From TrEMBL:
InterPro entries: Flavin_OxRdtase_Frp, Nitroreductase, Nitroreductase-like. Residues 7-160 form the Nitroreductase domain. The keyword Flavoprotein applies. Transmembrane segments: none annotated. Keywords: Flavoprotein, FMN, NADP, Oxidoreductase. This is Oxygen-insensitive NADPH nitroreductase. Belongs to the flavin oxidoreductase frp family. It holds the Pfam family Nitroreductase.
Length: 243
């Protein structure tokens, strides 16, 4: 059942050596393409990185060497207005994509494509993991795989046969996410402490990598400082100037 598959997701960071074939990759990407896309722009591209040296360098730049070198397939999920530029010029027009709205559209399109790809892979028995670390060095990674203006990596996605089995992390309860008619922040006073307890229990019961931590502690440690402050300037050099 699809819903049960969705609820069984856990990130996989250790894979068996088997590489995915071109036929397997094309099947997954072909299924992923049926995700919804704003105004049918399909503002995404996927770079399948197979060259061993490029994968090694990608692991170094993203600070994820084990996954980039050990996965069965490594994908760079990219926002892409370059292909749209070609399409528009075929009609004798000039493209405008430097507005914030275009950036939101592209990132949303990539996210929907990537999640479809992840779900398709997991339905075939593969494990997956998103690699946000590619944004640590967006320009160097763009140069590594030849991304032109209008194209930038949003995240990596590794796929492969799992060499490990991880438990599913408890998500926030539905009532924390679902608001009816009006946004209700008062309920967080009771929901978040209860959720902290469940996360602490989860980490303490894991078979490996046990630790003592709550969700709010992790969020405080993560969100109390800026991350990747260069991204705005990098995106501007890619043609996204937030007009």
């Amino acid at each position: 059942m699809v819903i049960e598959l969705m609820k069984s997701h856990a990130s996989v960071r250790d894979y068996k050596e088997k590489q995915l074939t071109r036929e397997e990759v094309e099947e997954l990407i072909g299924a992923a393409q049926y995700a919804a896309t704003s105004h049918f722009v399909q503002a995404y591209s996927v770079v399948w990185v197979t060259d061993p040296e490029k994968r090694r360098k990608l692991g170094e730049l993203s600070k994820n060497p084990k996954q980039m070198e050990g996965a069965g397939a490594v994908f760079l999920m990219c926002a892409d207005y370059n292909r749209l530029k070609h399409a528009v010029e075929m009609q004798g027009e000039s493209i405008v994509f430097d507005q914030a709205e275009n950036l939101l559209v592209a990132v949303t399109d990539v996210g929907l494509l990537a999640q479809n790809l992840a779900l398709a892979a997991e339905s075939k028995g593969y494990g997956i993991c998103y690699i946000g670390g590619v944004r640590n060095n967006m320009e160097a990674i763009s140069e590594l795989v030849g991304l032109p203006e209008g194209v930038f990596p949003v995240y990596g996605l590794t796929v492969g046969i799992p060499n490990e089995s991880n438990g599913v992390k408890p998500r926030l309860p539905v009532e924390a996410i679902l608001h009816e008619n009006d946004y209700d922040e008062k309920k967080y006073e009771t929901i978040l402490p209860e959720y902290d307890k469940s996360i602490e229990e989860y980490y303490g019961s894991r078979g490996s990598n046990q630790k003592t931590a709550t969700w709010s502690q992790q969020m405080a440690n993560f969100l109390n400082k800026p991350h990747r402050p260069d991204i705005k300037e990098v995106l501007a050099r890619k043609g996204y100037s937030f007009k």
